[in-house]
Amino acid sequence: DVVDTSDSSTIGRFINLSAPSKAELWEQSQLSYSSMDPNTATGIALDNIVQYGAIGRLPASYSIVTGLFKGDNGVSISLGSIVGANTHPNTFATTASIALTPTLASGIDVSVNTIANATDYTITYSLSSVSTNTVTFTSDGSATEAEILAGLSAEILSAHPLLVATVVLSTLEIRKADVFATSTFSISSNLTIDSVLKLGTLRAETIGVISAEANSLAVIKTPSLGWDTVTNPLAAIEGRTVETDEELRLRFRDTKFERSSNILD
Q1: Pairing between strand 98-99 and 76-77?
Q2: How many CB atoms lie within 10 A of CB 95?
Q3: Is 236 exposed, middle or buried (0-12, 13-18, 19+ CB in 10 A)?
Q4: What does the pLDDT look like over 64-96, one tens digit per residue?
Q5: pLDDT tier at 210, thresholds 50, 70, 90
Q6: What is the mean pLDDT of the chain?
Q7: pLDDT tens string 148-180
Q8: How many beta carbons lie within 10 A of that of residue 107, not counting itself?
Q9: Tens digit of pLDDT for each residue in 28-50?
Q10: pLDDT band at 260 (very low <50, low <70, confident <90, very high)
């Protein structure tokens, strides 16, 4: 009534000689059959089918974030420089070298190098490729460094809404109200641009879904001379892992619906 098919029995050993190869043949036959249907196809077979919908499997990608870098005027931050955060272990690296120059910058720090009476102190910044605006303060008969910086700051705050100005010790910090709306700055010879604030792109060092909240990337992991600070005004645009078969099937299905049309409602 009970047939012994265990591995130690004669029948069991006979089965083990022939069954595995037959099972593999059946499995391959099933895969070939399933590969013709997007609901059951997997891997490369599914990749081939969705090409009829003019789409392909989404590859894995890196998270990207915009960084705001500050440092001495003229300093260059190297490609691959790494920054991180105190609140999470994720690290990001620059995708290109960043030249901290007043060209297309988000802000500058200005100091006075020559104090003179009855003299114009001028800061010029671009509004577009063909338009510029000028900030001018004329010192009085008893000029001081504090007076000149305060005068420039007051002029900016009263007549230049695209800029924000703050006097910190012996420096006038000038920032674009919108740091993403960059300008090219220039100054008169009696002033000096000490530091520059500039945008650059950072990419996560690990591929996939790597997050970074706004203003969390503030730690310079690879310091370089003249590079002072970094931050990220916006959260990172997260990357992804390779699109799974199920995700690809759903997107293929949605693509067909988007492209369908009819002549009647």
Answers
A1: antiparallel
A2: 15
A3: buried
A4: 999 999 999 999 999 999 999 988 899 999 999
A5: very high
A6: 93
A7: 999 999 999 999 999 999 999 999 999 999 999
A8: 23
A9: 999 888 888 889 999 999 999 99
A10: low
* Angle, vertex CA 81, rays to CA 205 and CA 230, nearest 5: 100
Q: Where does 143-260 have alpha helices with state H?
A: 145-159, 245-259
Instruction: Identify any residues that bridge with 165 across adjacent strands, giving them in sequence order.
Output: 174
What percent of the chain shows pLDDT beyond 90? 85
In angstroms, the CA 150 to CA 161 distance is 17
Confidence band (pLDDT; 50, 70, 90) for 255?
confident
Specify whether the CB–CB gap between 251 and 49 falls below 8 A: no
Q: Whole-angstrom Cα distance, residue 253 to residue 157?
A: 56
User: Long-range contacts: 85-91, Cβ < 8 Å, 24+?
Assistant: 85/212, 85/216, 85/217, 85/218, 85/219, 86/216, 86/218, 86/219, 87/213, 87/216, 88/211, 88/212, 88/216, 90/63, 90/204, 90/206, 90/210, 90/211, 90/212, 91/204, 91/205, 91/221
Residue 92 structure tokens = 């990001």
Q: What is the dihedral of CA 8, 12, 15, 16, to 10 degrees?
A: -30
pTM of the model: 0.81
List, as own/partner pairs, every contact residues 244-250 make where C-beta atoms lie below 8 angstroms and the sequence separation is at least 24, other chains included: 245/41, 245/42, 245/43, 245/46, 247/58, 248/46, 248/47, 248/50, 248/57, 248/58, 249/38, 249/39, 249/46
**Residue 231: Cβ-neighbour burial (10 angstroms; 0-12, 13-18, 19+):** middle
What tokens appear for 22 in the block? Answer: 């037959």
Identify the CA nearest to 257 among candidates 53, 86, 99, 2: 53
